[in-house]
């Protein structure tokens, strides 16, 4: 008896070791990415100083004064800000339709559309917006097209996420809310949505992180211009992930350094937003 | 005016294709308590949800028959009007977790515009909490979240929240089932005084015969989707005419 017990313990230990080894192996690439971005990013930013790196335009061919990512950062803020605002305005009513009017045809249709769009390749979204807004309406790369493409990418995701947050409100709370006798819309907006507000906020934050990090929808919409601040919606502009994509491919050291620095900034922003979202999720669980 | 706050006529309910209630009729005179009893799964909760049209929210539910509130059919009213005139308190305490104790009670009056000033709202909140026998325990911490209350206090908060919209009828679905005896007594007292002093009509689902006799004026006994016996509580409890009712009171059903 004790023998087989020992054997089983050994088996457990070996099993555990294998699992730990596999876990480390799967986390290694992530650690490597973090390491690379931090080391090369810090190197690039330190050369010019954080403030100047964040505010100055880039000089990708000037090893003496490589400049920074100011215009791209502002462009990213403009694009993500617009996308998150418009997407939130549309996603919230859509999620109410999905979650609180279940059973109706329009509700099921909305959910199906949202689920399909979530899986839709983002490059195709960019391509479609290009065909309409860039090629047809404006006649050139423009920030508006980028904002529209980003909106389309994050909107379905946010609608699904918010509808799941609404569905997560306990049935008892939902019934009690309706039982107070307000109209259906009032009940949802005054009682049920606030009860799900953290979950909805998490969806908005993750949407924001995606909007800030997506590259494919911007490839043939925004264009990529980094010399000065381009805030005009119907003109060409830039964004941080697009800048990384474009600068890393240039055969010049200063351009590649700029890309690494930009990568570190982007990573910091996204990790920050994600951490905030995690914090909110944790608070949800405590409640 | 018929003198009845609530009349249920030949109520039939089907949920997901399954017949739950099959012709239920009873009447509740104004300012009385009617206890609804019956074995588990007979459709007592379903009946309360049919009365205040909460079942409208379930696309799988079919409700037939008539329900009258003070002589007017609920089918002639908007569902939200019905729900406000006949509010419901559920078996599990379910205060809104994201709102303070005060806001849980104040949110109904706010939604219905019942108070014209902060003072009037304060008064309604106080009235509802006093009526639910909770005021003394929470008056110094109205800003706390309901998670800081005990289960029994939470249930009384749910009662206060339902009262604050000034309903004519209260539908109580086993409000003391998950509550300790001390809190159960408080809820029973609250119900009696609401009926006596505020003229509210109560429909009260309970599993406990002793509680039904203590609290109710009339008793409706449901079995398998039918009313098998009804009448004044004492009479039915002491002298059941139907063998099923008798069995139930002996605790054999
Ligand atoms: N949404 C639903 N869809 C289908 N069937 C349901 C639904 N809700 C309840 N039922 C069924 O309806 C029947 C009556 O349920 P109900 O909750 O009304 O009984 P009850 O008398 O309140 O029981 P209890 O005393 O246990 O609370 C049960 O058989 C239950 O399984
Ligand atoms: Mg029940």
Write the layout of secondary structure elements.
The complex is a heterodimer of chains A (287) and B (253).
Chain A: H1 2-48, H2 50-55, H3 70-100, H4 105-119, H5 122-138, H6 143-167, H7 171-179, H8 184-195, H9 197-213, H10 216-219, H11 240-247, H12 253-286
Helix pairs in contact in A: 1-12, 3-4, 3-6, 3-9, 3-11, 4-6, 5-6, 6-9, 7-8, 9-12, 11-12
Chain B: E1 4-15, E2 18-29, E3 33-37, H1 44-51, E4 61-69, E5 72-73, H2 79-85, E6 86-89, H3 101-112, H4 118-131, H5 135-138, H6 151-163, E7 169-173, H7 181-198, E8 201-205, H8 209-215, E9 218-223, E10 226-232, H9 233-238, H10 243-249
Parallel strand pairs in B: 3-8, 3-9, 6-7, 7-8
Antiparallel strand pairs in B: 1-2, 1-4, 4-5, 9-10
Helix pairs in contact in B: 3-4, 3-6, 4-6
Bound molecules: adenosine-5'-triphosphate and magnesium ion.
Class from helix and strand fractions of chain B: alpha/beta
Distance between the termini of chain B: 38 Å
Q: What is the percent of helical residues of chain A?
A: over 70%
**In percent terms, what proportion of residues of chain A is strand?**
under 5%
**How widely separated are the two ends of chain A?**
47 Å
- The H-and-E topology of chain B, N to C, reads as EEEHEEHEHHHHEHEHEEHH
Proportion of β residues of chain B? 25-35%
The radius of gyration of chain B is 18 Å
Mean pLDDT of chain B: 92
Main β-sheet of chain A, in a few words?
Answer: none
What's the overall geometry of chain B? Answer: globular
Low-confidence stretches of chain A: none
- CATH class of chain A reads Mainly Alpha
Total helical segments of chain A = 12
Q: In CATH terms, what is the architecture of chain A?
A: Orthogonal Bundle
Uncertain parts of chain B: none
Q: Write the CATH fold name of chain A.
A: MetI-like fold
Specify the overall morphology of chain A.
flat
How many domains of chain A, as an integer?
1
